[in-house]
């Protein structure tokens, strides 16, 4: 087998491995709203009792803290590193997988992989550590995709045939 192609991965390509932080932190928003609303309600309704004021104030502060944490997480989410968005060439042979950019080349023998996960856009080859090396599927022809899947299955990776 010898399959060689060059492909530039965009940010959407990495959506499976790197979800959007707005989506990831969404559960914090209703929890924050609940804390703020409940705390405010305790302060207003039971304003005569010092324990209610303290509990309400703490709940409202906790809710605000959750919103601040969510905002900080969203602001610090840098997305995919620019190095992953440069053109890359993959070479798949019977002996190894090779992945190259203008600046570097990485070579992996097939025996260095533990498992393979196949998703719509890529073959995800898992190494010890765990480290995941991806092989995009969209640049492959149907024949190349079938050949590579059969090759991986022949190596004993049961999840390769899709």
TrEMBL record:
Phylogenetic placement of the source organism: Bacteria, Bacillati, Actinomycetota, Actinomycetes, Micromonosporales
Keywords assigned: Membrane, Transmembrane, Transmembrane helix
Superkingdom assignment: Bacteria
Name by which UniProt lists this protein: YcxB family protein
Stretches that traverse the bilayer: 28-46, 52-69
